[in-house]
């Protein structure tokens, strides 16, 4: 009995210390704080658990918005599904004024763009500026990569003088996933624009795991598509991987302070599976158009 | 703009034939004529779509998803009624199908064919019974259309889109979520 009690105390203490040690977010006043979820809209118990953890994290890290990387509503998209797969799981955050910005996944009816809760402004692709600080976020529709969209994207990038340019969409251009893998057709078209216009970070889902890719042409790519679905053991051995985790459900917290972007990937149990800092390079700092 | 883009595709077709094969002014290039016919059929469909849309609940930004669904369903019902007799091949006519296969051939058989086909295959839905005026099942994924495919085909108005289901190219009405037309054997 005494031994069990002692083990429980040690476990509780170590997990608390571990959690504290692994928090890399500076939580500075005035910084840009946001969260990221991908492939979230199942309405199932895993989404519920991730949503609860996300909500719990918000108590200590006041992120102002959440990026949704597509597959926002799996299966049917009846009015009740918007409640079960979005409004209910994130109710506390929505009530607290946290805004959700969605990109379309392959399971999403493009009509979702008219739903105000997803803040897409009625568009399949759009951009928005962080409420303060110097960061612009570009939501792309990787399901339907039309010339019209690329023309719009290039125009938006050229016009942006934001220091941080972050793109988010559904299909990963780099991936070590056995199920999907890298979308090379998309890479062929988008990567030159990313490089030319100084995109700093690309966030995608589609693969139901977490993977941070080694920087490609100076750009960091992160896949986080396991906010409700998980493919265990799906990350194949690959020279692309900087850090991979396919053993649990994940979401991310991010904070931009000046030239640093701090990131932390957490499981539904609150365990940190990856963390670090992305530094905006001089090249991208100089890239904004006049 | 769709008109400009389809005109652009027609111009590209003319150029691809080379100067020697440019038609005399009084002759119509058959490939360009086919694409022109496609454009006219698309325009005709869009006129109907736009007319019926005016009398349907509007699709606009809302907090209430029921309004989105109501708008989709109402337009779909009107289009189905107005095109009750529509058959496969009314927009993708046999001549258009032949021309589209030619336009897609470089992507489907060229050096990037494997990547293109992998991207198309990646998001395929379960077997869908394709039917003109049929609803695209909302519980099924919408397969990704690679950028190179979209660049090869005439651009469409905002409310129409191409999707590739299995080996079929479908024309989907985005607002109404219905299949407007489809054609077989595009990935071969």
Tell me what you see in this structure:
The complex is a heterodimer of chains A (290) and B (188). Chain A is α/β, with parallel strands linked by helices and 290 residues long. In chain A, 29% of the residues lie in helices and 26% in strands. Chain A has one domain (33-286): Metallo-dependent phosphatases (Purple Acid Phosphatase, chain A, domain 2, 4-Layer Sandwich), CATH 3.60.21. In chain A, helix 5 (147-159) packs parallel to helix 6 (184-197). The longest helix of chain A has 21 residues, at 2-22. Chain A is globular, with a radius of gyration of 19 Å. By secondary structure, chain B is mainly α. Chain B has one domain (35-183). Chain B has helices at residues 2-16, 30-54, 65-82, 94-109, 113-122, 147-152, and strands at residues 160-165, 168-173, 178-183. A three-stranded antiparallel sheet of chain B has the order 1-2-3, with no helix packed on it. The longest helix of chain B has 25 residues, at 30-54. Chain B is globular, with a radius of gyration of 18 Å. Mean pLDDT of chain B is 87; it is low at 14-23. The chains are: A alpha/beta (290), B mainly alpha (188). Chains A and B meet through helix 3, helix 5 and helix 6 of A and helix 3, helix 5 and helix 6 of B.
What is the oligomer described by this structure? heterodimer
The H-and-E topology of chain B, N to C, reads as HHHHHHEEE
Count of extended strands of chain B: 3
Calculate the mean pLDDT score of chain A and round it: 91
Which of globular, elongated, flat, extended, rod-shaped describes the shape of chain B? globular
| Major β-sheet strand ordering of chain A | 4-5-6-7-9-8-10
Reported for the largest beta sheet of chain A, the result is: 7 strands, mixed
In CATH, what is the class of chain A?
Alpha Beta
The end-to-end distance of chain A, rounded to whole angstroms, is 70 Å
Mean pLDDT of chain B: 87
Question: Low-confidence segments of chain A, ≥5 residues, pLDDT <50?
Answer: 4-21, 284-290
Instruction: Predict the CATH topology of chain A.
Output: Purple Acid Phosphatase, chain A, domain 2
CATH homologous superfamily heading of chain A: Metallo-dependent phosphatases
User: What strand order characterises the main sheet of chain B?
Assistant: 1-2-3
Q: What would the principal axes of the Cα set say about the shape of chain A?
A: globular
In CATH, the architecture of chain A is 4-Layer Sandwich
User: From the helix content, strand content and strand pairing of chain A, which structural class follows?
Assistant: alpha/beta
| Low confidence ranges of chain B | 14-23
Radius of gyration of chain A, taken over Cα atoms and rounded to an integer in Å: 19 Å
The number of distinct helices of chain B, counting runs of at least 4 residues, comes to: 6
SSE pattern of chain A = HEHEHHEEEHEHEEEEEEEH
């Amino acid at each position: 009995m005494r031994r069990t009690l002692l083990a429980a105390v040690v476990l509780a203490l170590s997990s608390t210390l571990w959690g504290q040690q692994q928090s890399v977010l500076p939580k500075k006043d005035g910084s840009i704080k946001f969260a990221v979820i991908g492939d979230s809209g199942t309405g199932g118990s895993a989404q519920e658990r991730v949503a609860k953890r996300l909500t719990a994290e918000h108590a200590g890290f006041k992120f102002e918005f959440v990026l949704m990387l597509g597959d926002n509503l799996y299966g049917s998209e009846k009015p009740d599904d918007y409640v079960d797969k979005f409004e209910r799981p994130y109710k506390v955050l929505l009530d607290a004024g946290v805004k959700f910005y969605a990109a379309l996944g392959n399971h999403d009816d493009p009509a979702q763009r008219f739903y105000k809760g997803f803040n897409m402004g009625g568009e399949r692709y759009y951009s928005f500026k962080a409420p303060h600080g110097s960061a612009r976020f570009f939501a792309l529709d990787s399901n339907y990569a039309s010339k019209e969209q690329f023309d719009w994207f290039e125009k938006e990038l050229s016009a942006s003088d934001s220091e941080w340019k972050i793109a988010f969409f559904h299909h990963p251009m780099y991936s070590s996933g056995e199920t999907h893998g890298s979308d090379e057709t998309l890479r062929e078209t988008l990567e030159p624009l990313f490089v030319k216009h100084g995109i700093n970070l690309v966030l995608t889902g589609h693969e139901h795991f977490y993977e941070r890719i080694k920087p490609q042409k100076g750009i960091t790519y992160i896949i986080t598509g396991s906010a409700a679905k998980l493919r265990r053991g799906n990350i194949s051995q690959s020279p692309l991987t900087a850090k991979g985790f396919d053993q649990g459900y994940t979401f991310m917290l991010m904070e931009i302070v000046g030239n640093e972007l701090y990131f932390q990937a957490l499981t539904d149990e609150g365990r940190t599976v990856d963390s670090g800092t992305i530094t905006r390079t001089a090249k991208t700092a100089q890239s904004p158009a006049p | 703009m769709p008109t400009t883009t389809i005109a652009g595709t027609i111009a590209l077709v003319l150029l691809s034939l080379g100067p020697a094969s440019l038609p005399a002014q009084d002759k119509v290039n058959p490939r360009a004529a086919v694409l022109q016919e496609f454009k006219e059929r698309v325009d005709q469909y869009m006129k109907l779509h736009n007319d019926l849309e005016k009398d349907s609940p509007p699709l606009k930004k809302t907090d209430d998803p029921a309004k989105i669904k109501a708008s989709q369903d109402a337009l779909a019902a009107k289009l189905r009624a107005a095109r009750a007799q529509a058959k496969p091949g009314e927009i993708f006519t046999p001549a258009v199908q032949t021309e589209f296969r030619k336009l897609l051939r470089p992507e489907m058989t060229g050096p990037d064919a494997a990547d293109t086909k992998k991207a198309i295959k990646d998001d395929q839905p379960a077997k869908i019974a394709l039917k003109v005026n049929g609803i695209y099942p909302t519980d099924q994924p919408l397969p990704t259309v690679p950028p190179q495919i979209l660049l090869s085909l005439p651009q469409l108005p905002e409310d129409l889109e191409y999707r590739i289901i299995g080996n079929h190219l479908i024309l989907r009405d985005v607002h109404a979520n219905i299949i407007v037309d489809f054609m077989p054997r595009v990935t071969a």
